[in-house]
Amino acid sequence: MSDLILETRGLTKEFRGFAAVRGVDLKVRRGTIHALIGPNGAGKTTVFNLLTKFLEPSAGRIYYRGDDITAARPADIARRGLVRSFQISAVFPHLTVRENVRIALQRPLGNSFHFWRAERVLDPLNRRADELLDAVGLAGLEDRLASALPYGRKRALEIATTLALDPEMLLLDEPMSGLGQEDIGRISGLIRNAARDRTVLMVEHNLSVVADLSQTITVLTRGRVLAEGDYAAVSTNPEVVEAYMGTGHA
Known about the structure:
4-stranded antiparallel β-sheet
């Protein structure tokens, strides 16, 4: 079996004649943390939207586990184990921390939205929910309303709910956005732990986090791949330096 879990070939997206993504060839190896970086407007979020089928490509193909998923629907992508987090808040604010995770755990049972089910029917899911909450540092907060959590802890809860879906590959869209330094360290640790038995592709502006976590980095600029490699290689690439210096910090 190929060590590639996700691949794009010639991925392109045009909006009324403007090419936001131009012929992107992306190869993500299984079991790695792969970062997608670039200056503002480089096309990073558009690539994520194409991969998860929130946008349809104008040209090119997308392959996941060797299968062509270019025509698949967003729900089909998630069922295949390719799950995106942090695109929007995954937290239900008026449910408890445990209830948020338990909803995600119900999904494989086919009753994700059966909020009216008797408590005793859902109790068997509590142990797994609490294990996930403990893994993300939320032990002891199970019965607190999600809306009462500080912002950084809400991000941790989002990771717990995402992991409850048991994804094979996790796409993180700017996971450090809006976090303070203490929370950045905590969430970085959670991402590293999550990647022990799955693949992570992330868009991230914090280059210190990228350097710390990623084995491979793809740099985009103006919708094209500018460079790829480990942090040492891309950070000293003259074209990468020029792209960042010319447009400001990513």
